[in-house]
Request: fold
Amino acid sequence: MTPLVRITPASHDVDIDLAYATAGNFTGQPVYAAQAGCFLNTEAEALLCRAIALAQPLGLRLKIFDAFRPAEAQWLLWNHTPDPGFLADPRRGSPHSMGAAVDLTLIDGHSGAELDMGTAFDAFTPRSHHGNQDIDAAAQRNRHLLMGIMTTAGWDFYRNEWWHYQLFDARAHHPVLSDSILGPDRMMP
Reply:
């Protein structure tokens, strides 16, 4: 039995656009299979549900770009761009590879439009850092709103990426998982 929970639009009322299942990511090629699913460990899934509930009365929903990232995928990303400011060194283990992290943004609950966060997802620049004041005030407010929802729900944030939230002390409490943990739902092509 897998320790991961599948996250779907129907089960969790979220939008899912897994960036690494397409060529629309910083590597320029798919990292996951086209049919890749979105998964989190049970502790992270519970916190995601809290965040969804906090966003809903504000007329907002969550859009997920990445969640569980198999260890094999972390190595592919690291080998492409070994930047410890934006990617976890796979030798240490990424919270994504533990099912303990999620990359996401806020969207309007009616139109589905993404709120402006000042940079795109996976923009590996200082403008992506929390608290960066080189982005306009509306984008700063949107980042603070996302951070407020996620931290109130119990998530920790990563200071260099406005989109990344993870469980506190994930490395101390969760193992790194391989793609094989998903059985027939494998993510790697």
In short: The domain at 4-185 is CATH 3.30.1380.10 (Muramoyl-pentapeptide Carboxypeptidase; domain 2).
